[in-house]
Amino acid sequence: MPHKDITLLLGLQGWCVEDVTIHCGREARIRLERDPPFHECSQCGSKTTQRYDHSTRELRDLAISGKTVYLYVPQWRVVCATCKAIVTEQLDLCDPDQVMTRRYERYVAQLCEQMPLQAAAEREELSWSTVKRIDRKYLQLRNDARQFGEVRKLCIDEIAYRKGQRYLTVVSDYDTRDVIWVGKGRDKAAVAAFFEALGPAKTAQIECVAMDMSKPYIAAVAEGAPQAFIVYDRFHIMKYVNEAVDQVRRDEQKVADQAGQELLKNKRYVLLYREKNLTEKQQVSLQELCRLNQNIAISHLLKEDFCQLFECQDTVEAAYFLDGWVQRAQDSKLEPFAKLCEQLDRWREGLLNYFVHRVANGLAEAINNNINVLKRAARGFRDLEYFMLKILQRCGGLPPLTQVIKTS
Ligand SMILES: [Zn+2]
Asked: Is the pTM of this model over 0.70?
């Protein structure tokens, strides 16, 4: 094939193919030359044809017919009349100091959209760190190009990203079901930073915020978006109900240990899941546990009972149900439930707000699960900024890759 045709095939404007060699049947090495021979000064951008000397750059490019392609590109030092100096020319094929063409980087970034990083690295025979660098770069570009839409219903959550109490604050939009913000920490400042990024006009339109019963979050919303109602949804409340169930289990475990019984070992999850979601075997295990230990049986019934709250149709019905439940919980004389009743009393308004400003119950849970999958799939995510970008990517908060891809 004449090189003219390979030049057309490559489609790199301003470059022509000088030579092609195939190595070991799987690697194509293509030598390029500028056509026409104009060079751009990397200092001032002016054009020149005055060459001084050159070095050859090796750039990985898109594969052709299954062959790995390396371009061999002369990079000239040129005499710039404007700068009155010998300067290195600008290469339009790649970003400065990169060993691959820009279009190949974009291709790798697209792969990372569709598969785990390790899989993309193996497929392209690139190192994990190279693929990560590319992925991070394009995620950052997408994050920079991001614009907030209007938001009415928010969900604010904290997630632990490392052992030892390191947290991120994750803000999601109930209407689009997207994560729209990830900030460091779980304090008031983390939420305040989100309101600042959203801007005063859009912040003023927020109707309600579902969240954990965290004092800093409550304070941040009261100050930043005072018009918004605070809502405690099922996901966040149930965390505390489950904690009470678990505390009863631990207390009973202690008693059983002292009596030398093995009654409660490995029963934690049987107690924490909804009964209707248990397997047949787990249900038998649960029934046996409840038969052997009365306090556990009571705590289990109180939890199952509490779930009914979210079936209530309005605030009046919910308030009536809640009062009845609190009475039953207090009658149980179980210490963890007594504590929970005190907390529910403090959270009452936010809890009842749920029946006015209903939010989809599955969202906080789904996002939590999604982030946990991401945590497990990634090797550690020691790079926190990258992890934050990956959350936005996985949970929908970034504009599409095509929006930030330059066509050069
Ligand atoms: Zn110049």
From this structure: yes
Mean pLDDT of the region 4-28? 92
How many Å lie between the centroid of ligand 1 and the Cα of residue 83?
4
Tens-place pLDDT, residues 145-181: 988 999 999 999 988 887 766 899 999 999 999 999 9
Strands (E) in 286-357, as ranges, are none
Decide: residue 72, CB within 10 A, 0-12 exposed, 13-18 middle, 19+ buried.
middle
Inter-residue contact 330 to 324 (CB < 8 Å): no
Check: CB of residue 105 under 8 Å from CB of residue 140. no
Q: What is the mean pLDDT of residues 1-28?
A: 90
Please determine, for residue 357, whether its predicted confidence score (pLDDT) is greater than 80: yes
Question: How many whole angstroms separate alpha carbon 323 and alpha carbon 311?
Answer: 15
CA 96 to ligand 1 center in whole angstroms: 17
Q: What are phi and psi of 374, to 5 degrees?
A: -60, -45
Read off the pLDDT band of 364 (50, 70, 90).
confident
Quote the ligand 1 centre to 137 CA distance (angstroms): 28
Look up residue 223 and give its two tokens.
């100050």
Measured in Å, residue 77 CA sits from the centre of ligand 1 at: 11
57 C-alpha to center of ligand 1: Å?
A: 21
Decide: helix, strand or coil at residue 333. Answer: coil
Of all residues in the chain, the percent with pLDDT exceeding 90 is 60
Cα 184 from chain centroid (whole Å) = 13
Residue 236: phi and psi, rounded to 5, are: -75, -40
| Ligand 1 geometric centre to CA of 305 (Å) | 77
Query: How many A from CA of 405 to the centre of ligand 1?
Result: 28
Q: What is the SS3 assignment for 119-162?
A: HHHHHHCCCHHHHHHHHHHHHHHHHHCCCCCCCCEEEEEEEEEE
58, containing H or E segment: strand 51-64
CA of 84 to the centre of ligand 1 (A): 7
Find the 43 Cα to ligand 1 centroid distance in Å.
5
Which pLDDT does position 1 carry in this prediction? 55
Task: Please tell me the distance from the alpha carbon of residue 235 to that of residue 61, in angstroms, as a whole number.
Answer: 48
